[in-house]
Design brief:
Its EC number is 3.1.1.-. It is an enzyme of class 3 (hydrolase). One of its GO terms (molecular function) is phospholipase A1 activity. Acylhydrolase that catalyzes the hydrolysis of phospholipids at the sn-1 position. The structure is a single chain. With 365 residues, the chain is of the alpha/beta class. The protein has a single domain, classed as Alpha/Beta hydrolase fold, catalytic domain (Rossmann fold). Helices cover 23% and strands 11% of the residues. It has nine helices and ten strands. Strand 6, helix 7 and strand 7 form a beta-alpha-beta unit. Helix 2 packs antiparallel against helix 9. The radius of gyration is 20 Å and the shape is globular. The protein starts with a strand and ends in a 13-residue tail after the last strand.
């Protein structure tokens, strides 16, 4: 099976998605966001678009790097780092150029043994930042823990109409449930991810109402599906005069299994192009976000030679995998908390360190 990866979605209306080498003509910011469906920007991959895609992927990775998935911690499911120094602590390039506006959470009600049993699973850490051209990027991530739905819940699709009308867009019910469900028992998800998102969008649009804005969603895996769903939602129901873009990575199908029609622009890359990566047969390597970003950094088309067009450390590939060749001497899954978060207390006991005050998770909605 060929280890290939897929990106990019573009809904109708001003919602966009894309990818990016050679600079021949200066392109405008709207063009980079897909105003012309990235015509002439993908083959070869336009340099500024390549950088924008990589930056979008880095925002996704930041949510992974900050996510507390330690089930021994009472803060599991939240960000390890607070807003004030979030980007500095995940070591994002040019961290001081960005600020976190809000953390958003989603919950999935999971059927375990009987309908009344459920597990809240926080799957979305959304950060809203401000970048160079007054763009508000919102990174979304996949869950660190796989959750399951019952057959009745997971395989259906949903619309805003009860009729089985093929002309009405449909969304896989599992994605919609994650996006729209709430949990009154959780202090973080008393409101659905959708409600949190729309509230935050309205706040930011009002805050920067005197500036020319664009909104960019980015996500990987499940986060990619939620990015597409969120982008369509705000364009259809909230935003009519601001360009909305979704740069997505390794995105599952969002619509129904039968009759699915892609509404986006897709760039296919091949992980076999890079001599730095192992000839892996593990699908999780092909789906690894940093593996994808490594390929984007050097992608020169299916027939072109792989060559890094931007400076990017190969070591990033092994942040949460062992996809990089052993000759690089980079350990696998190297992004971990020191001592897995354990410290010695005043009694000499090893305990999980409590978060610093600025990093304490606080419900916002």
């Amino acid at each position: 099976m060929a280890p290939r990866q897929y990106f990019l979605r573009k809904p109708s209306k001003p919602v966009f998605v894309a990818m990016a080498t050679t600079r021949t003509t200066e392109r405008t910011w709207p063009e980079l966001l897909g105003s012309n469906n990235w015509k002439g920007l993908l083959e070869p991959l336009y340099l500024d678009l390549r950088r924008l895609i990589l930056r979008s992927g880095d925002f996704c990775q930041a949510t992974y790097d900050a996510f507390n998935n330690d089930q021994n911690s009472k803060y599991c499911g939240s960000s390890r780092y607070g807003k004030q120094s979030f980007f500095q602590k995940v070591m994002l390039d040019s961290a001081s150029d960005y600020q976190v506006s809000s953390f958003l959470y989603a919950t999935a009600q999971v059927t375990v043994t009987k309908p009344s049993s459920s597990i809240p699973c926080h799957v979305k850490l959304g950060t809203v930042n401000r970048i160079g051209s007054d763009t508000l990027p919102l990174p979304l991530m996949k869950p660190s823990k796989v959750f399951k739905t019952s057959p009745e819940e997971g395989n259906g699709s949903s619309t805003d109409s009860g009729e089985d009308d093929e002309s009405v867009p449909k969304v896989m019910l599992g994605w919609l449930t994650v996006y729209t469900s709430s949990d009154p028992k959780s202090s973080f998800t008393k409101q659905s991810a959708r409600t949190q998102l729309l509230t935050e969008i309205k706040k930011l649009v009002n805050q920067y109402k005197d500036e020319k804005l664009s909104i960019t969603f980015t996500g990987h895996s499940l986060g990619a599906s939620l990015s597409i769903l969120s982008a369509f939602d705000i364009v259809a129901n909230e935003i009519s005069d601001i360009p909305v873009t979704a740069f997505v990575f390794g995105c599952p199908q969002v619509g129904p299994l039968l009759g699915y029609v892609s509404s986006g622009t897709e760039l296919v890359i091949d992980t076999r192009k890079s001599a730095s990566l192992k000839d892996s047969t593990n699908p999780s390597d092909w789906h690894n976000l940093q593996g994808m970003l490594h390929i984007v950094a050097g992608w020169n088309g299916a027939d072109g030679e792989f060559k890094l067009e931007v400076e990017r450390s190969p070591a990033l590939v092994n942040k949460s995998s062992e996809f990089l060749k052993d000759e690089y001497l980079i350990p696998g899954s190297w992004w971990v908390e020191k001592n897995k978060g354990l410290v010695r207390d005043e009694k000499g006991e090893w305990v999980l360190a409590p978060p610093a005050e600025e990093d304490l998770p606080i419900p916002e909605y």
